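Researcher: Structure prediction, please.
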Amino acid sequence: MEAARDILKKIRKLELKTRGLVAATFSGQYRSVFKGRGMNFEEVREYQPGDEVRSIDWNVTARFSEVHGDAYVKKFTEERELTVMLVVDVSASGEFGSVHLSKRELAAEVACLFAFSAIRNNDKVGLILFSDHVEMFIAPKKGRLHTLRLIREILYFEPKGKGTLPGDALDYLNRVLHRRSVVFLISDFQAPDFEKQLSVTARRHDLIAISIVDPREEELPDAGRLTLEDAETGEQIEIDTSNRRVRTAFAAEVARQTAERLRDFRRKRVDAISLKTDADYVPALRSFFRTRERRLQIR
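Model: Predicted structure follows.
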C-alpha cells in the first residue's frame, strides 16, 4: 500500500497533466460536442435589427404596441449544465499492464481528463466503480476537490469482486439517474454479454464506451512455453507461444471478439473509443471529438 504522501503526489501529478491537456486542447471540443438539454427563457425585450422574426412574442407585442409601437422578442439562453457519469471497471483484469501503465491507471487518467473538462464547463461529475457488482457510487457534484476524490477512488479503491459485469453497472446507473446524462463507460470489456443493458442505457443517456487494451492481450510474444492465469477467475492454461500457429490463432480470436463488440456498439448507436496502454491516448480522443463534431454539424 502506498503511503498517503505518495498517493497525494501521484494524484496531483495526474491533475496537472490532465488539466493542462483540458486547457490546451479539450475544453472547447468538449463544450461543442456535449450540449445542454435545451433552452431556458430569460426575458422579453424590444425587437432589435437582426433578431429572428420567429422569436417575436406576439402576445406581449399586442399588449404594448399601442403604447410603445414596438415589437417584443423572447430571449433564451442555452441550458448548459450537464451531468457527467464516469462508470469505471475496477475488476482484477485492470491491474494488468505490460508497459509503464496498467489498464486501471490509464482508465484513471482518461477519466480525470473528462472530469476536468466537465468542471471547467461548470458541469456535475459522478462516479460508479464496478467489478462483478457495483462497488461504489458517488453522486454527481461540481468542484475540484470533488473531482480529486473521484480520481483517488478510481486509482486506489480496493474492490471486493474480481469479475467484470458492465451490465449490472448500467442497470444501477439507469435506476439512480433520472435525467439524461453523458456517460463514459470505461472498461476492458472482458465480460459476458450485456447487450440488453447497453441498449436501454443508450436510449436514455449519451453513452460513450471506452475500451482499455494492453498490447499483450492482443498478441502473444514468442517466449516459449508459458502458464497464463486469468486474473478474474484464477483459471490457468499452459501455452506454447513459440508455435506460430498458436500465436496467429490467438490474435485472430481477439480480433474477432473486438470486431463483434464494435458492431454491437454501432448497432446501439454508442460512440466507441479504443485506447492502448502503450500508446498516447490524446490522438484517439482528438479523433473522437472531431468525428462527433462533424456528425453534429451534419444534423
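Model: DSSP finds eight helices and ten strands in the chain.
Researcher: Thanks, that helps.
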